[in-house]
Amino acid sequence: MQKIIAANWKMYKTRPEAAQTVAELTQALAGGTPHDRLVLIFPPFTSVDVVVAAFRDKKNLAVGGQNFYPVEQGAFTGEISTAMLKDAGATWVLVGHSERRHVFSESDELVARKTAFALEQGFKVMLCVGETLQEREAGQLRDVLSRQLSSALGPLPEAQRGTLAGRLAIAYEPVWAIGTGKVAGPAEVREAHAALRALLAEMLGETAADLPILYGGSVKPTNASALVGLDNVDGLLVGGASLEAQSFLQIIGS
Ligand code: PEP
Questions:
Q1: Domains in the chain, start-ordered, CATH in brackets?
Q2: Which of 180, 237, 243, 250 to mutate to test the pocket of ligand 1 (most atoms within 8 A of CB)?
């Protein structure tokens, strides 16, 4: 399976700053992205078209939206639609990121509506799941992952579920590891990814084997290759360390 190395730029970078970072990336990748890697960037909305323009006609590079509201259009002040993202050139969307769940109180129900709507609109979805420290310490890891997966994927129509390969990726991001410098250890990552693969198999049958499961949470150039080499780790979702081209390039090459 092609490994996905994804960058979440969160609320960082003006358009000129995004253009500068992406120019450094494309220059360094001019000889081609490692063939077994897909490099995916989730810039802020205002820079989606900037990154799309820099990636045009290049292989194994893609751009996604960090957020959207799951209806076609309407009186939703401050929101962005999937049509707007499509127009800007995005092909992926991030759904269920822990900052959306915990800072903006997005419920499992909204995450489910966003997942279904984005798939229906032809987007590829990166669905983020992960437990808080409190949940982990209470021994609830599997229950949390099961609840988050089943609430997001359970309501999908049967026809959608059969065609998720190539259109859905899962990102395991323990909340306690995001932006904290605390990376999950190999045993913790292995355990969570194996649990996710098993849960996906229960829900989706054979398709589960074809769904990439990424790890995210304080990934750095120093720990990326160890993480990406673990069983059931099909890529990395990187926040802080993706903001500097040189550091993200080291992760891409890990
Ligand atoms: C993220 O935003 O998805 C993330 C994993 O952030 P960081 O790498 O900074 O922990």
A1: 3-252 (3.20.20.70)
A2: 237
